[in-house]
Structure formats: C-alpha cells, structure tokens
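Blinded run. Sample ID left blank on purpose so nobody reads anything into the name before looking at the predicted structure. Input follows.
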Amino acid sequence: MPLSLSTSLTSSLNTLTHKALVIDRSGIILFINDHYNAYLEHWGLSSAILMTGSHYLELFEEWIAIPVQLTALDNAVQHVLQGRRLISSSEFIMHIPDQPDRIFILDAFPLFTERSCGIQSLILSLHDKGPAEPRQHEHVRSCHPLRPRRISGSLVPICASCKSVRGSKEEWITVERFLQSQLSLQFTHDICPDCIRQLYPKYAGVLNQ
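Blinded prediction complete.
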C-alpha cells in the first residue's frame, strides 16, 4: 500500500522556503511543494506536479547535465535509505535549455513523523547556487584523478591541539583549506554515524548497527 502524507504535513512542506519533494523507499514521488514546482516552471522545465507517482530519477534526468551524476544522486539517496547516513548533501550541475548551466546542492534526509517506523520516506531539498563557471563545469566533466601539487618537504606540520596545518607561507589554516589548495577538492557537509549517535541520539536508531 503506497504511503500517503497528511494534509497538515503537506501544508507545512508548502510553507518552507526550500524547494522540496518527498519520495518513498522505492523512489516514488509522493509530494512536491509549490516552491519546487514554481522553480521548474520559471526555467521552462516540465511541471513537477505531473511527476507525482513517478520515480524521482525521471524528474531529475531532464535537467542533470552529466549523466553519471544521476547514478551519484541515486547512490546518495540509497545511503540514507539504508541507514548509512542520516543526511546526504551533494553538488550537481543543472542543464537548462538556452541558459547557462547552474550549480545546485541537493540534500536528502529522512522525513520522520509520529507514525514513522524506521525510514519510510525522504525529503529531497534543492538549493540553487547560481550559474556554473566554465572552470567548474569542466572540472566535474573531466573526472581526472587528483594530482596533488608538490609540497616542500615530506612532512606537513599540523598543530597537535587544534589540527590546523602550517601552509607554505607559514600561515596556519584548516585541514579543509589545506586539502582544497593542494588537491583542488570541494567539500560537502555530512555527519558520521558516531557523531549522529553522540549529538542526535534520538535518530541514531535509524542507522545500521
């Protein structure tokens, strides 16, 4: 029997400023809020409301510019459904006909209700970051292996207390900034199972033990 969402819940989802849709464990779209549909209509894309009852990948395959990113998106969603993560945040490139490509962030996280027994549905929330720069687009398309720039010496000084790294200009920077400068990495927010259990014990039960 397919899941159904209460009127009060869908009304709450429509008050969100986020562009959000709800899918069940099979990936079937249960609900799409007004902001999401208005966003697609603004760019001349298919009306999302007509996609209710379809698989969510059918909605995304129209405008994800790089096909392999559909697989990455599905993998991220499956990790949340299978309890490997409580939330997954991924960056993709959106292709809009006759418009510059755009970067967007897609967050996937469980929709918990009073009647929830485990993870039965997910919210997918879209955040538009603006036009993609040509350099960003080429970087995502190329998928070349990471080649670190040369670091003087074989040891990297790291603070024993705060874990800051001493850079080539003798400045102390975060590990994230150091990796970005050396490997051209981009980071996305996630939270590991141990931290979920420590910080959000209420939700730890949805994780695989």
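Unblinding after everyone has recorded impressions. Residues 135 and 207 are 38 Å apart (CA to CA).
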